[in-house]
Amino acid sequence: MKEDFYEILGISKGASAAEIKKAYRKKAIEFHPDKNPGDEKAEENFKKAAEAYEVLSDPNKKARYDQYGHQAFEGGGFGGGGGMNMEDIFSQFGDIFGGGGGGFGGFSGFGGFGGGGTRTVKGSNLRIRVKLTLEEIANGVEKKIKVKRKKQAQGTTYKTCTTCNGAGQVTRIQNTILGRMQTSATCSTCSGAGQIIDKKPANADAQGMLTTEDTVSIKIPAGVVDGMQLKVSGKGNAAPGNGISGDLLVAIEELPHDSLQREGDNLHYDLYVSFSEAALGASKEIDTVTGKVRIKIEAGVQSGKILRLRNKGIPSINGYGTGDLLVHVNVWTPKSLTKEQKEFFEKMSTDLHFQPNPEKEDKSFFEKVKDMFS
């Protein structure tokens, strides 16, 4: 089970943005690979802190994490901040480490990222919206989506950038009253890739890329929520040269159902029955997310009765079981009657069997509302 992001950074859920940033910087300094050479445990803690900061520093991601935990980003193989490598950390959080090029103050950097080594460039992310029916959400689904993404054009070749000599960064040393100061900045010629175009086809863009249409298979786990975002690593735009591809971010949109209403992991269904069905009892067919089922309505059922069908709702995205289907019974009152029907009900109006006589188990409307929210 993954560690809690707040525990990793040593902060509370009510921590401010400034406190989150301060806590992350403290952890990053403590576990930085240059301070702990060859220490795999320190490197792992360094990555965990970066993963936690990536989520908690973003208000939208933080809100989803607070509500759904790690499952908000890790449904069926997708990651939110998961699987971060050193390229991700040093390129994304350069402002935390100081020195716009990803350096870390007095440290020399790790794997060439802080002190002028080759920087791996990552392609841009792509975002799509996937519409899902309630049935697809309840059962999980694999979607094949056509995505337009940039790929390196065949025949494109690169050569080492002459400005930075392939480092991806330009280092400058200045003499100040405090001594010699070294600063690093991303190379403006190659944008940090360390390579520039040597040859490219005529139909490629300035970076040697072509826009193509790919079919991407996306496995969506059961129980996702409207507005949740999943990530498919490496299915975004490619990066020039030897860079790594960006990610495909998948936003979930839940389509309304004709007869079912979702409330968290529970579902609600309005069932209408006639006077005669309520009095005599009936067998009714209703919709569920796994198909139609038939339920028995007991004789003498009252309007407002709620029937609970266990485990007929939506599976929890956090793995806490499956919700229920709540069937709300409504006795339908006819709006017009024939002469014979009116005469029948007039005769029955004084009959004791037709007089309201609620029993203790017949809960009031307010008691039912209370039960629903408890």
TrEMBL record:
A Pfam entry, by short name: DnaJ
Domain of life: Bacteria
Free-text comment about domains: The J domain is necessary and sufficient to stimulate DnaK ATPase activity. Zinc center 1 plays an important role in the autonomous, DnaK-independent chaperone activity of DnaJ. Zinc center 2 is essential for interaction with DnaK and for DnaJ activity.
Cofactor requirements of the protein: Zn(2+)
Domain J stretches: 4-69
SMART domains: DnaJ
Function of the protein: Participates actively in the response to hyperosmotic and heat shock by preventing the aggregation of stress-denatured proteins and by disaggregating proteins, also in an autonomous, DnaK-independent fashion. Unfolded proteins bind initially to DnaJ; upon interaction with the DnaJ-bound protein, DnaK hydrolyzes its bound ATP, resulting in the formation of a stable complex. GrpE releases ADP from DnaK; ATP binding to DnaK triggers the release of the substrate protein, thus completing the reaction cycle.
Entry similarity comment: Belongs to the DnaJ family.
Entries under PANTHER family matching the protein: CHAPERONE PROTEIN DNAJ, DNAJ HOMOLOG 1, MITOCHONDRIAL-RELATED
Residues annotated to bind Zn(2+): C161, C164, C187, C190
Statement: the UniProt record of this protein carries the keyword Metal-binding: yes
Keywords of the record: Chaperone, Cytoplasm, DNA replication, Metal-binding, Repeat, Stress response, Zinc, Zinc-finger
Gene name of this polypeptide: dnaJ
UniProt xrefs under InterPro entries: DnaJ, DnaJ_C, DnaJ_domain, DnaJ_domain_CS, HSP40/DnaJ_pept-bd, HSP_DnaJ_Cys-rich_dom, HSP_DnaJ_Cys-rich_dom_sf, J_dom_sf
GO cellular component, one term: cytoplasm
Compartments (UniProt record): Cytoplasm
Biological processes per GO annotation: DNA replication; protein refolding; response to heat
Organism: Rasiella rasia
Protein name, per record: Chaperone protein DnaJ
Annotated cofactor note: Binds 2 Zn(2+) ions per monomer.
Complexes and interactors: Homodimer.
GO MF entries: ATP binding; heat shock protein binding; unfolded protein binding; zinc ion binding
